[in-house]
Amino acid sequence: MNGMHALDDGDARSLRLGIESRLDHVELLGRAVHALCAAAGMPARECGQVELALVEAVNNVIRHAYRGEAGHPVRVEFAVRGDRFTIEIEDEGTPMPDRRAPVLDFDPADVASLPEGGMGLFIIHSVMDEVEFRRLDGRNTMRMTRRLAA
């Protein structure tokens, strides 16, 4: 783990974590986001959905942006601002070529037709309310937002 920083951003409560680009470190981020979601008042099922989105996103960074190479930084900031729980994932790897929400074409009644890969972005877009990407100064940032129940 590269570090942990609690941030005070006015009305926001946030936490910044960093890991090395290793798949065996992703579980730490998953556990952290699950606990943070629960602390923000999300029901257990929603906490699990946000955890899944985070794990899929960070796995994609490691596998695709960093081509599976260890030793690169992955920074994640979690923030609660008003009625929103936001996660920003930042890396310095290869930019993602297609940033549109994916559409999967398969027959849900036919298990054999399920794709073997490429479902990560579909899952992320399915469970998060907003997903945004940007590339600036050699860094990729993915922002995922989930609205909190009133």
Q: How would you summarize this macromolecular structure in one to three sentences?
A:
The chain is of the alpha+beta class and 150 residues long. The protein contains three helices and six strands, in the order ββααββαββ. Strand 5 and strand 6 form a beta hairpin.
Would you give an account of this structure?
The chain is of the alpha+beta class and 150 residues long. The protein has three helices and six strands, in the order ββααββαββ. A six-stranded antiparallel beta sheet has the order 1-2-3-4-6-5, covered by helices on one side. The model is unreliable at 4-8 (pLDDT under 50).
Instruction: Report the mean per-residue pLDDT as an integer.
Output: 86
Give the CA-based shape. Answer: globular
Helical proportion, percent range: 25-40%
Q: Which spans have pLDDT < 50 for at least 5 consecutive residues?
A: 4-8
User: End-to-end distance, in Å?
Assistant: 34 Å
Q: Which band does the percent of strand residues land in?
A: 25-35%
Features:
alpha+beta, six-stranded antiparallel β-sheet, 150 residues, globular
